[in-house]
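Q: My labmate handed me this sequence with no annotations at all. I'd like to see what the chain might look like in three dimensions before we decide whether it's worth expressing. Could you predict it?
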Amino acid sequence: MQTQIHNQPATSRTVGRFNPQALLGRVLDNRVAETIIEQPVMSYYLQDLNPLWSLKELRARVVEVIDETHDAKTFVLRPNWRWSGFVAGQNVGVNVEIDGVTQRRRYSMSCGEASGKTFQITVKRVAGGRVSNWLHDNVQAGDVLDLSPPAGDFVLPAQLPGKLLMLGGGSGITPLMSQLETLLDADYAGDIQLLYFVRSPADRIFGEYLDLLADEHPNLRVQWCFEDDRKGGKPERFSARQIARRVPDYQERQALLCGPAGFMEAVREHWAAKGLSERLQFEYFGTPPVATADGVEAQVSLSRKTRDLTAAPNQSLLEALENAGETPVYGCRMGICHECKCHKSSGSVRNVLTGEVSSGDEDIQLCVSVAVSDVTLTY
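A: Here is what I predict for the chain of 379 residues:
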């Protein structure tokens, strides 16, 4: 009896009882054989048999592409054997080649942990967004994408509280959707309030589905906050008065926040003013703002390359390196994925997400670190 991995149908290359995927699984149980076959020629032949097959690379086949709104699409993906699952709220790296250059971006999973043999990401088209636009314009069902493993610490609290508040803006709904589905799949009995800020009803990602979930689960309430002028009414944006009216007991709730930078700054400032910062978890969708404007022009020494370069005031170290012709590894550029982690042996940097200044010998994230003194990096 043939064994079909990931529910893939037998192909014309599968003859009789011979199944290359099953053979690959048996070979990988033998470390000696694995060492022998992990050569470029073997990888080439495996990919020729099926683009999804790889000894080392995480890949996924696009099963379905769903139009969520006029500028948002969901890509349902079936990963290969390298996939080991994810935690609700995490993100996955998508690596695509555009004009001969590999571009890397990270997107939050937009489904619950119990999604089975597939998972999904939801991508909003962004003006000037190289990867988001490429995915929208080029990727179809049947295509295979190269991925980087899930990462991120914007996850549900280890000890779930009795009341939760979710605040989402735009495409920031995607990790919240993953968390919400995971909670409901696990029969979470606590009270959930979800406030979703969008420009108009036409911009509601998962709009009908969220309304359906609210109808099916008495402990979930979904409130839509529209920023456009609807029928002569005033645009609704986050404010102290607005949140108190929408969720009177919000100060008693553990809050989860994700969305555009300006929206998130308004929420964070209000939570800080109320002394509630410890009860607010957040993740930026977009380049995070500089926490303060006291940056300095700094000399950045690269210890392994015996090279010095200059970082402009309030410029991230990632941007400073790139502007100097260096090619540091990066993923999200928002402090989420930690792919740009680098060792700093001296000097001080400010984390633009938290505003905290740290000094001395430590690992930092280049994308959210601004030099406040001369620094020495090893990368």
